[in-house]
Amino acid sequence: QVQLVESGGGLVQPGGSLSLSCAASGSIFSVNIMGWYRQVPGVLERELVAVSISGGGTKYADSVKGRFTISRDNAGNTVYLQMNSLEPEDTAVYYCTHKSGRGDYWGQGTQVTVSS
Known about the structure:
By secondary structure, the chain is an all-beta fold.
């Protein structure tokens, strides 16, 4: 089992910034992907936002490239998402995920609302 604890999120005006963090604990596999997906009301699927691949490498949704940055701490068990130039379309529940050969785990989700 992998436990994920998310923090951050909230309400921000368009053009503003927010940061999210996600700390993983438990049966962490050294080879993993950690990152963020988001889900908007009425849509069943979660959309990839940004992920960090252990050993290096990142992947971003086209809609957030140049605005969002994902990073990891030195231990590799905490990921951060810095979100700049936020747009109303970024409003969603953001979920942290930890994916490995042992399975996929998800955080409880944190709300990000971009509105004036």
